[in-house]
Predict the structure.
Amino acid sequence: MYFDFVGHRKWWYLLSLIILLPGLIALAINRPPLNFGIDFIGGNILEIRFEQPVPVEKLREALGEMDLGHVSIQAAGDQNFLIRTKELDRDKVNQVIGALQRLGQAEVVRVDHVGAVIGYELIVKTVIALAITLAMMILYITIRYAGEYLAGISAIASLLYDVLVVVGFFALFRWEVDSTFLAALLTVVGYAVHDTLIIFGRVKENLHLVKKEGFAEVVNKSINQTLRRSINTVVTVVLVLLSLFFLGGESTRNLVLAMLIGTVFGCYSSIFNASQLWVDLHLLFREQEKEVARPAKAKAR
């Protein structure tokens, strides 16, 4: 089966915009734009150790009766738990400890307060890391494809789309954003660029093999040749992530959810955005270069 991906690229652009737009609107109208968790807005961290194993569901039930808002419970075995809550005063912290100690004999290992400054620094460092990563990717792709900087620009634009889609989903549905979300974004970028480079690598091979076909035809052929590989890869990764989402517990759910969305749309954008952008940029800039070169050749004669 051979499908004309490149010929329908305007429709893919429209579909991509429709997918992205609700999230961008949510980011614009929500205050704050994202549902920041304790890592960003500050709160309390309580580490507790029980002498006997206690099911995490019991902890959630006990804390759920205290109107604490969102509570993050991270289990380290059956007896040790790390509990994150919004900022609480001393009396409320003592009430939480009392509620937990009623579940069994327990030792409070530590009670700490996390300031919002740490969250701000995390965001700044993540943005810097993302910017450096994207710049290095443009450089790497340009060198790998023999000065084809248009391929690098196309890949980076596609990666930014993937990041915005993930952030948009979290803004739209008000899912909590914590420090693991930032790790997920960087992981998504790494996965998506790998998927894009597989297609671009095939384009480079076909350009050497096929001399008579135009650039758009070569890109379309390359997408079709790598389509099965792209689908098989994303399905395999999605199955693993779905298992982690339903069986991995509450502490990793937001991380897995961000990676799940990013993986699906990373595959989508590699096929429907990155390759199509490369075609349009190539047609725009390379044709202009040819037009400039023709008068120069004529004068030389």
